[in-house]
Amino acid sequence: MSSVESHQEQLSQSDPSPSPNSCSSFELIDMDAGSLYEPVSPHWFYCKIIDSKETWIPFNSEDSQQLEEAYGSGKDCNGRVVPTDGGRYDVHMGERMRYAVYWDELASEVRRCTWFYKGDKDNKYVPYSESFSQVLEETYMLAVTLDEWKKKLESPNREIIILHNPKLMVHYQPVAGSDEWGSTPTEQGRPRTVKRGVENISVDIHCGNVNDLFFYLLIYLFVYSFNC
Question: Is the pLDDT of residue 18 over 50?
Fold first, then answer.
């Protein structure tokens, strides 16, 4: 064997080629980054007017799960009606509206909520629209997967949302007069706080319809007293 052949054989033994089943370092890094992303868990809310102000109230866990199952069933969701609150309210999925069954009451808007914001003067978090929440989630997914942050988005009403990192996301309102010459809004003033997922906001969510027994007991007493 010549000296050249001997040297090539030593190189092949000391630096073997990667097997077809092995991953390159880039692929491993990419897999690790992508594994950090987990889809957000939605929760359903309805809107009530309290003290002349819109307030978003969460459905209890059981009703929210039923609404989510109806949403993801793959059937015709537009004409579907889901009873909630022990049958006291019906949610029309296509309309995204909640109607009282036994008495007259203004219908309330219903929303599948995943992203929220809250200002200094707000008592509770407000959910973004379903369509813009989807945009936020897709942007968040890319930021986590690629580990590229400081993502800036513009909402339909020209407000600015910046995803600095998973724990710091802010919402700036447009400055009055900032778009007189067609310019884009700037990040000025005190920002609102942005949160992803209902588990990251302070809100009371009941497990189920704990008041149903009392409701039906009242109906029974009313019917009984009326018949007497």
Answer: no
Helix crossing, 25-34 with 130-146: angle to 10°?
A: 150
So what's the pLDDT on residue 42? 97
Cα 212–Cα 216–Cα 217 angle in degrees, nearest 5:
110
What's the pTM? 0.74
Q: Rg of the Cα trace of the chain?
A: 27
Statement: residue 174 has pLDDT above 70? yes
| pLDDT higher than 50, residue 28 | no
Does the structure show a pLDDT above 50 at 20?
Answer: no
